[in-house]
């Protein structure tokens, strides 16, 4: 789906990817191309790409797929702030960074998201799906967790 342009300084784009860990690469690639086209600064671009990769990986590992065995990856760009979100089919657990231990080999995804994001959160939908989102480069308009 081509990006929807709201005005000269705003981009709104959604892609659907298979509910599969390999889809993180597809999401990263699409996001990077879109943000490079809009000349987003390198730091925000790199952080957004890393965050979307972590969100896709977490959705595949900890949640179910949406109907059709897919995830929805969405991003907006408004006045230099990039918001990324990944919607999955939901989970019985809630997203939270896990406490780090020296012997831990997994569980760093949301710690990475928290480190890069200006803010992040999640929204549970009435249909059971969940959207995990993060704002990079500045504050979000969402302000809910």
TrEMBL record:
SUPFAM superfamilies: ATPase domain of HSP90 chaperone/DNA topoisomerase II/histidine kinase. InterPro entries: Anti-sigma-factor_SerPK, HATPase_C_sf, HATPase_dom. The keyword ATP-binding applies. Residues 19-128 form the Histidine kinase/HSP90-like ATPase domain. Keywords: ATP-binding, Kinase, Nucleotide-binding, Serine/threonine-protein kinase, Transferase. GO terms for molecular function: ATP binding; protein serine/threonine kinase activity. This is ATP-binding protein. It comes from Arsenicicoccus cauae.
């Amino acid at each position: 789906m081509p990006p929807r342009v709201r005005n000269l300084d705003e981009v709104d784009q959604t892609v659907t990817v298979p509910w599969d860990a390999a889809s993180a690469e597809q999401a990263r690639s699409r996001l990077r191309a879109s943000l490079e086209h809009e000349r987003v600064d390198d730091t925000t671009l790199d952080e957004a790409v890393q965050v979307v990769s972590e969100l896709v990986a977490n959705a595949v590992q900890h949640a179910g797929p949406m109907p059709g065995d897919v995830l929805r990856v969405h991003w907006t760009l408004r006045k230099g702030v990039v918001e990324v979100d990944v919607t999955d089919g939901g989970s019985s657990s809630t997203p939270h960074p896990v406490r780090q231990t020296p012997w831990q080999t997994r569980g760093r995804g949301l710690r990475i998201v928290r480190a890069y994001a200006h803010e992040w959160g999640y929204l549970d939908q009435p249909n059971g799906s969940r959207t995990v989102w993060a704002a990079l480069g500045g504050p979000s308009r969402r302000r809910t967790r």
